[in-house]
Amino acid sequence: MRKHTRSAILTVASLLSVLVGAEVAARAWLPAVPPDAHTWPRAEIGQKLEQIDAYEERGEDMDVLFVGSSQMAASTNAQLFTEQTGLSSYNAAFAGPSMRTVGRWTLDVVEPKLSPDVVVVGIASRDSNDRSRKNKKVHEAFLSSPGYRQETASLASEFEGWLEDLSVFMRYRRLMREPATFLERTEDELGEQEVRMAIGERGLRLVEPVDYRFRLAGQRSLGKGTLGNFKTGGREYRAVVEMHDVLEERGVEMVLVNMPLTEDYLGAHEDVVAEMTSYRDFLADIVAATGVPFVDAEKAFETPKAFRDLLHLDVEGRDAFTEAFAQAWDDISGDAHLLMECTNKPMPECDLHPAP
Questions:
Q1: CA 191 to chain CA centroid, nearest Å
Q2: Is residue 191 in some structural domain?
Q3: pTM of the complete model
Q4: Element (H, E) at 38
């Protein structure tokens, strides 16, 4: 009996020794490893979720929640919005998702944690394309990610998430099984790591370029990727309507914003007239079906001066966009339909007024 007991103790001790060694090795390697490795498809999601969880733990709800893709992430300064309106706010948008992914992130993860009164959804034509292979890939990666499963699934998954919070080894074990994924990171993945490190309070991206930079390769990539084989009216449409309906059931208002774009972005469409007409019909159908307040900022800027690339505002454009939103906030309610118009002064200024 003693022999078996001694053997069991040695086995347990050996196992603990291995685990401790793995933990020490993981912590030594940690500074070189991208954050949230293999937990979420984008590191920015993990960073923002850390902040969101901190707000939830402190019992701090948000009056206004901004969601969407990188356009909303880059275009709204939640700190400035809060300063000017006195309303607490958070920008939970991140790079890459279309509306079906934004819907799942908002309804399943963020809104239950922050309990906002209003959710502002930013959208552009790239987010409405039902046939986009890139949109499908991003959506599938999001739903299958350990982070999403841990936030929405079983008690076992929640326990796994608790272990990952406690142990660096557990947090990065997937990456350690496939070290090549770290050693062979792409420029996009490296960029995601940098984005995570540059995010401040209220989900604000702290470091953003100012000067507009047009890349023909980027325009072509957009055309072949998220805008390729363009078609609206299916799953992305249903995702927006579902988001509105579920939020309404929860007592939360939704505001839809057609995000600012450049002419260079429009040039990424294969048939810009037909496809943008389809997209605008898509927006009109959503507004008709839901009665959601709608802000049309697509043509707000006549030149790309306030942008840093085809579809993202720069720091000055972001602040002008946010200030206009803050100043008109009392009018963004009910069935309001507002247009945004911006000047091209050295510092852009924007105004929201009722659509004709």
A1: 15
A2: no
A3: 0.81
A4: none
